[in-house]
Amino acid sequence: MSIRLTEEKVFKDPVHRYIHVQDKLLWDLIGTSEFQRLRRVRQLGTTSFTFHGAEHSRFNHSLGVYEIMRRLITNFSDKPMWNDEDRLLALSAALLHDIGHGPFSHSFEKVFDTDHEEWTRLIILGDTEVNEVLRHVHADFPKEVAAVIEKTSANKLVTSMISSQIDADRMDYLLRDAYYTGVSYGQFDLERILRVMRPMDDQVVVKASGMHAVEDYIMSRYQMYWQVYFHPVTRSSEVILSKILKRVKALHEEGYPFKQPPHHFESIFSGAMTINDYLQLDESVMHYYFQCWQKEDDPILEDLCHRFLNRRLFAYVECHPNERLTDIMALQELFWEAGMDADYYLEIDSSSDLPYDVYRPGEEQRVPIQLLMKNGQLKELSSESDVVESISGKKRTDHKLYYPADTIASLDSSIRLKIESILKQM
Amino acid sequence: MSIRLTEEKVFKDPVHRYIHVQDKLLWDLIGTSEFQRLRRVRQLGTTSFTFHGAEHSRFNHSLGVYEIMRRLITNFSDKPMWNDEDRLLALSAALLHDIGHGPFSHSFEKVFDTDHEEWTRLIILGDTEVNEVLRHVHADFPKEVAAVIEKTSANKLVTSMISSQIDADRMDYLLRDAYYTGVSYGQFDLERILRVMRPMDDQVVVKASGMHAVEDYIMSRYQMYWQVYFHPVTRSSEVILSKILKRVKALHEEGYPFKQPPHHFESIFSGAMTINDYLQLDESVMHYYFQCWQKEDDPILEDLCHRFLNRRLFAYVECHPNERLTDIMALQELFWEAGMDADYYLEIDSSSDLPYDVYRPGEEQRVPIQLLMKNGQLKELSSESDVVESISGKKRTDHKLYYPADTIASLDSSIRLKIESILKQM
Amino acid sequence: MSIRLTEEKVFKDPVHRYIHVQDKLLWDLIGTSEFQRLRRVRQLGTTSFTFHGAEHSRFNHSLGVYEIMRRLITNFSDKPMWNDEDRLLALSAALLHDIGHGPFSHSFEKVFDTDHEEWTRLIILGDTEVNEVLRHVHADFPKEVAAVIEKTSANKLVTSMISSQIDADRMDYLLRDAYYTGVSYGQFDLERILRVMRPMDDQVVVKASGMHAVEDYIMSRYQMYWQVYFHPVTRSSEVILSKILKRVKALHEEGYPFKQPPHHFESIFSGAMTINDYLQLDESVMHYYFQCWQKEDDPILEDLCHRFLNRRLFAYVECHPNERLTDIMALQELFWEAGMDADYYLEIDSSSDLPYDVYRPGEEQRVPIQLLMKNGQLKELSSESDVVESISGKKRTDHKLYYPADTIASLDSSIRLKIESILKQM
Amino acid sequence: MSIRLTEEKVFKDPVHRYIHVQDKLLWDLIGTSEFQRLRRVRQLGTTSFTFHGAEHSRFNHSLGVYEIMRRLITNFSDKPMWNDEDRLLALSAALLHDIGHGPFSHSFEKVFDTDHEEWTRLIILGDTEVNEVLRHVHADFPKEVAAVIEKTSANKLVTSMISSQIDADRMDYLLRDAYYTGVSYGQFDLERILRVMRPMDDQVVVKASGMHAVEDYIMSRYQMYWQVYFHPVTRSSEVILSKILKRVKALHEEGYPFKQPPHHFESIFSGAMTINDYLQLDESVMHYYFQCWQKEDDPILEDLCHRFLNRRLFAYVECHPNERLTDIMALQELFWEAGMDADYYLEIDSSSDLPYDVYRPGEEQRVPIQLLMKNGQLKELSSESDVVESISGKKRTDHKLYYPADTIASLDSSIRLKIESILKQM
């Protein structure tokens, strides 16, 4: 069933040194147009506005997840529960787990109420090159791969290797995003973690002797979330991006005469987007439209596109929406009064992270990390680690109010001072 | 004249750890739309088809060149020949030296016979945000910056710091491109080299005690050229890119009815491109067109765009054009016979590198590296270093013939075998 | 007062890249025989039995602490409370803070009830080369340096820079010990931490924007303690070392006829050790004696020395001394019965760490870390950081029982089984 | 024959991340007292006087050579010429290749006319723990291991893996010494080189596609020699060390009444050194004697030991012995006149390197590097690589004259000026 390449192919990778491809199946998947498209979707969306180094694509990351999976299962080959189809399933799911991501997923999905996981399923199961390659294994193989990525597979072991508190996906993105941003936070001892992982019934467990390496990984994750992924400057650019998409949709609905009509967006506006439409909407295409729309007559669309392309971002203050309701409503009034559309120029953005989540019945959750003790028992990580226990299950939320400080600075002093005095006291 | 920021701004940078901005002038230059545009032009064009990590932009590199210059001149502040305007001139020129680069410069300039250095001059001197910011220093400052970048400035010292055999530009790109590709070749001891550099009359010289560090830098350069910059796979994608641009131009000239007409290219076809037109033509826009053109009826344009976007590259063989003239002509014949347009599907690409160039009267050249001996004398590097001497002035050229192996494989066996037999004996 | 070197001296350093010496005072201190002696005392004692890479000396580390101090105070030069004598004081104290360390300090001090801090004071104030060099600043300068190291100085600001929860000493050893052992735990962003540190009255505070970098440092410290410094294998070698010293002392007291008498130890046995005696007792000398004593007739001394030099270490089990008193006493009985002297072959070793310590009135403590908030207020770190709060003030102790498993394995089965059955149930 | 450990043992290593031991044979060899002794012999002798980071031992390096060998032969397991005994032979020879090194080998061997390679043979074949462990494979196995290390083995393939122009020994020490010194020169892409190495008849060849990685390795080697191994400051300390040994030998021969007689050296003075005597003479023991001898009455021995321990090194000038014969003789005269024994205080030291050596009939040489071309032919590296060709076979020698500048500075001005004027014109 599995066809080996006559000669192993390698990719030079700055994070894992080399990525090794030994199976024709994987090599063919990498060559599909759907996978190559990931070169035109950045891994961290607008983060490069904050950390200029973070310009790497989802293509880059997907190869990394594949490689971690490959190294992980190298140790599994002698396990009775493990066969060659499991291997291909794990590798394919690792490579394809992000195939459904569109450009700037976060903002895109929020505005258009769509979901990259659903697109992943459609791309794997639909009339695509990926699907055709996967069917070479057997007719049901695409479904099995999709099920693993969707976490509905009966193969819980393979599923846990891609979606758990410590999976190939997370391990790659922490290391990779740290490498490209240049921050020191995302470092942990990948090689040691891979060596202490063991398949056991339905999940991968971690030998207790590796607990500190896992603690280190959990702390890396915690730091990356607050230092990189939720950075307020990045969120400012995402606010602007969301507003652009919202504005285009509104203008389209009201029949606004675009100089450059949003052809690539029409099917998503009408709720009739096909796989093919979706696959064409990459970051380059988005950027093309933003550039054209800088010359539209609509002042909001023009301004927002100009802001996005030239990094004229919104400023921000801490602002808890419930505690500050009166102030926010007052600001909205003042914005309207000053001629700034508060629907587009005032926004609360909230980011939350659950750094480590123990299972709680009834809640959607990721499989917790089980330590394999010397006596053969399993213990959940936070019961053994003080550090993890301290951050376990603690959801922390950060609320910020975004606004155009530059525009406000140019207003008449009477209204400007009113706005600034509210903002100052926040 | 120079206004300091009240608080230094820093950028996290994976290569130099941090980039420090202390002057309002530099901060404002970074914020201009022309400089922000560099985020949408990759430093290494199509290299990421070969080294997937190399997705970094010219924005990224330009900040790095600025930072190396900043560190270099920190040591110069007590030198008599050095004043604050020299400092601003050096920093501005370092930051802006690549401002005129368009998308995929190599192929773009070849097909359209244009030159990024000319565009750099126009952007700095024209009606742009960059020009306006520079004029805050004084009215002639833009001209001075442009002159340094063009190597026509009377200030030869500053010029040599950006354009010589060992300048801030080269030192940054070697380190940066090595970092992002993940190769180990581009490493050298930047800190030591900066410490042994001394301004002296018209150029920066290197204390003899640092010779080995400089040798190491020269060797890094040599290796990066042959291992990364001239990689045959990257050149294959550039061949395809050039052919796309050539085809679009030809179709446009013959009045082909495009579904997606090349609006953004029209002014360059007509030789009337303005600065504004040029600035809009970034990589995203190019990618947009390539995507649209995958659906054109012209089979050549459609095929080449499909190849470029999905990395279906041309194969290659070593082929010296003069020695293989008969073979090449025979192949051209066979290509036409098989229905493949040899103008688009058969191409010789030659890459040459001069790893280190000693001055030769009458030739365009970069200032050679002078070692400052203990006795105060200057000696040219290759006269002291065996290793540098060995590669000095030796131009090495690599010639390759590119062709679509996949298309050939699908031809009728009679003609296919003829083509393959010629290729095989090359 | 401060004499600059005509040319800066640099040391290549793997952790800080380069160490820069600009003052004659510091250069001369490095050249003293007392400071050069630190080359013959390893930074981590017996840790290289566990992490073979950790063979670096206290000389190595002391230069690193000096360099961190130098970089830290570079930012202070424009502060009103800061003058050139403060600078020399801070640099000298940083360089000399470990000058009193003897070989294998931990075991040595435990057995001989001595204290490296006391020796530091004596070396700085006594008739030494270090003292002579320091007196060139002024007659009281040695006292001032000693007071800073002893934490009795009126200059609390400088003191806090060497002895606080986040000082030059700790920052260097975490980075350096991580580098030499090869573990990934000790990484944190030194450059960022140095940039957010500010002198303020009596201590150095940290700008709140740097809180996460400091969290990362605290976690590194926590991990290094449990993963490296308290590693049970290292502690096993320290147990053996302590037993050697204890045995020699006992044999000396009872008039045992040594083949190689412990000349270098006699003054410490008699409580009359001079500075000169102390300075001669470096690790090489200790190793010399251990080697000679492998041939003594006393079977305990001979065996322990053989074990130490050839890494035949004791095995260990978890064992809380209070909870296991009966078992331990039973083991002691059995050891005596089997002819193994339990005073030398059975030992409880306990390691405790307080990863971060907030001030508690009446307790000896290190100055806690104060965050400088945007509004100018100071807040203690653990009140702002969940992660630090979680480990703050929590003393964790690890108890282990060490014993010679190899010797036990060679005993008669009757007594061996009894011993092993007690050990097994621990 | 080969017994696997029930669980793989790992060592954390800063250069190779982890060192993996899977065979009982290798684990037992590491545990022998002869191998553990290598912890007390530094890899780079006195280099830490120049690069303070380079305090690592031969133990450290030997594990690294073993690990490179292990990784290299992992790729060989499917080759017909390769069996399990070859594997054990290669691994054992890699681990033990330096087992015969004494302290400060370079100086030691020069003065006592002994040879670490001979001691390696004696230790492997003699009545040692190493020999006993090796004999568990079979009675002739020690001889086979010794033959590989001595390059007299019929198994030329395994021999070439330890002793050729590109072997496990060299690859480890370049990477390791670069890591510990902190210089950037020793970097090359080990992983890639290992992947392109292929066993072929009597030697390991390199696939032509890896030529540039090998060039990079050769250049690293070249730079490390001149920047680190032949550093003039290191050579100064070796000159002093040689003079100490020479002086002790002379004093011993003339019956000088030592306060601390050179017991550990007596057998080597008399030419009757046993393996056991040799094994006891580690660096600690040498340091012990140097320390004691600082108090001898002989002014030369006392001074030289003081210099060595406290890094009061000799100064140096470039000096070609043949060209400067008259000057050197004049200096000798003046030294005697000034009361300085020129036999101990004036020394020419010459270092030569042959960075890459092609085979020349009749000369002792290391196997050159063969490239395996695509067509199956072998080509010697320097015939394909310009860079290697340029340094190939070129012996470069550096001559320096060492002298005690500090002592000279304290002489009467008449003689001092004469000496200094000769030195100055060199």
From TrEMBL, chains A, B, C, D:
Gene3D superfamilies: Hypothetical protein af1432 (1.10.3210.10). SUPFAM superfamilies: HD-domain/PDEase-like. It holds the Pfam family HD_assoc_2. Residues 58-174 form the HD domain. SMART domains: HDc. InterPro entries: dGTPase-like, HD/PDEase_dom, HD_assoc_2, HD_domain. This is HD domain-containing protein. It comes from Shouchella miscanthi.
